[in-house]
## 1
Amino acid sequence: MSMAQAADRSHAPARWQDFIQLLKPRVMSLVVFTALTGLVCADRPLNPVLAAVAILCIAVGAGASGALNMWYDADIDAKMRRTRGRPVPAGRVQGADALALGVVLSMFSVMLMGMALNWFAAALLAFTIFFYAVVYTIWLKRWTAQNIVIGGLAGALPPVIGWAAATGSAPLNAWLLCAIIFFWTPPHFWALSLYTREDYAEAGVPMMPVVAGAAATRRQILIYSLLLIPLCLAPAFTGLGGPVYLGVAGAGGLMFLLLAVRLLRSHAGETPDARKDGLYDVRAGARDARNLFAFSILYLALIFATLLGEHLVGAAPLTPLLR
Amino acid sequence: MSDPNRETETEMKARSGRNLAIAIGLFAFVVIVFVVTIIHLRSNVAVPHS
């Protein structure tokens, strides 16, 4: 028995559930949802089995990115309350095993996408995995406060991959879905980082509240929210969304803006958190940040669900200009 | 004296679980490739003119 193996004996043995946790199932479920929306919005008849394989490939590709992220970020994950229980920092899975899982699943998902659907969708999937694992995780995350802005592209691409899987192309409407998620990401993550700032500071991750301060972050959140809402309304005018979509995106957008303005006027992110163990305990001053964070998830889910629903029931788009 | 290299029951159970998960994953992959191949073959089979 080698010394490394002997050292491993000090931890609980890795169970298959630990390897599932490496794939970030919750992130995967959001990716599946947005990719499915892209695939359905393409309005192209596709064999249901091939559609399911396309979604599976995107889900597994997203999971592979998660495993690669957990392999590389184990050192900073160990310092943060939110992530210290992950399999690698907790010692249940070795970093090399997480790396191997990520690489193998990346290859399987891209190859299967290429063989079953088309190689354009496969190339987009490969690019997304590369962008998340290398550009975001290895390069941007520890280097710049714009990490989640640029890195957000990886999370924004799944609807384009879904659309490409169905059609072999990516028209303007597919990129519009991508743009919505891209501009949604900064207000979403910065709202979260306003009340987990100490964690990021301790781990040395240059998140916006750590580098530029809470007030600047709250201003940036409002600016991105102002850019996001027109983008969310745009599908109603490009032939993608119908009247229900316009209503949901409009009403939800107003609520989003209201919460962003309330956050701007608050003192969220300015008081240090003395509590070290309470995950997601929110101080009274940071409640506005928590509210926007929670609503941002609901808003994205609502607008994508509405688009999905409209296309599944065949509701007519308002203006079929770009179809 | 017990052998320190011998797997504990927990370790053996965890290893069996991992092996089973890999087996299921590989079997699912083979089935998917087979089904996808059949679907592509069927869509490419020329329908004879009557």
## 2
Amino acid sequence: MAQLNAKRQPAKIYFRIGERSYDYNMTRELTCIVCPMGCSLKVELTDGKVTAISGNTCKRGEEYAENECTNPQRTVTTTIMCEDGAPIAVKTDRPVPKEKIFEVMKLVNKKVASLPVSVGDVLLDDVFGSNIVATASRGE
Amino acid sequence: MDLVIIGGGPAGMSAAIAAYESGIRDMVILERDESLGGILQQCIHNGFGLHKFGEELTGPEYAWRYEKKVRELNIPVKLGTMVLDITEDKVITATNPEDGIFTIEAKAIILAMGCRERSKGALNIAGSRPAGIYSAGTAQKYVNMKGYMPGKNVVILGSGDIGLIMARRMTLEGAKVHAVCELMPYSGGLARNIEQCLNDFGIPLKLSHTVVEIHGKERVTGVTIAKVDENRKPILETKEYIPCDTLLLSVGLIPENELSKSAGISLSTITSGADVDQDRQTSIPGIFACGNVLHVHDLVDFVSEEAEIAGKSAALYIQNGKENTCSIALETDGKIRYTVPQRITENKDVKVYFRVADVFKNVKINVYSGENVVFSKRKQKVAPGEMESILLKKEMLEGAEKLTFKLEEA
């Protein structure tokens, strides 16, 4: 790991999310969000590619570390307004690219869902590769 | 009636199902709200159920799995029903618009009333009393259940999980969260929530910081925050003014034990919940407690697990009575703040949950019976925000009168 650090080159922006931006060559320290254990992960990046992962205690942590450094994704949970003027809980049925979170929110907030709604109903489809599904029921 | 369960949240539902599966039929769940599910209904974020179901569910989805089961089993539920009083003899007084005020004599009671948020009154922050100050859970209810945004420019005091979740939720809905201030030098929330709720959105977490003044007359116009020293006293030179219209408080949860007190159940001064044995039986035989009314949990999965113990034990109590075969007090050294259960009255394998008082690294959890260490486990890191558990095997309990839980250097 120390050797990889020594090779560190001038920073090029790798990607930017919110106020954070990342270099091509660096050691990234992450907190795994796969489960409540929250393992501290170390990921070595060389020329923008993941070359070493440590600190994870399971296979899913390794996958998370790799994805987080190459194509970070998040499941978005929010609400959709229903025709009765109250919101209903929804989620993306698979993770969406992290930088699209606010675009997902924009699309969801334009929608008004008609009742009844049941758990699992698709209320909006094809949102950056995922469907927006209801996680609660109302008006059944 | 055989069994009355007070509260229809995750603890109440799980206890009811476990009791049903152990053969109890003459039972009812009394729930204050208009639907089952408790606080999970407003916890629309995901991360629930990894232990229990091996998948990530949102709060309402987790609740739905249990509600569906309760419906399938035809377990009677009274919604919109407020329990007013319980007595030592297990007489419950409750009220709802349909039945008026009514009483139920129960053979056993399971307390599953959950917890409440610590309020601003408990904090002694200087300033006037403008609108715009909410507990994080109240804000969560407004946003997720009612569709109202409590404000646009937000400061959050306290880094418990609800505060962190709300930092992200308010941000997603277009608010600017300027800072999350935490009095302690560490967060009380899960590490994953700091990552996905704050770091993902560039929200600063200010550890060892507190709000020293709230500004505004009609509405919050800003807050003054300051760093605190090691005695948690604000360092006035570090005062900083942040303009905002909303202050959210996520400063701890307290088990809601008004009913337990009226029944005369003995409560732990540390957990603010009942003192219980391994079956989650309180100081009154036949009254059991589980979930956040017993002690505040970080994960609902453990609430369900604990409630199953209470449900099964209540069924056994109703069917056969319950006899104690031993009497072992569980004590702690202070570094470990508390254990649940607090006592063991039956010689069998017992899973003991506990919480530590501070962040410690490279430690051993040692359990002493007299001079002897009967259990030892190494931990790289323990933190107050993360509940720990160990399994005490039956043979470790042999001949013990008292077991002392200590956190020692590894």
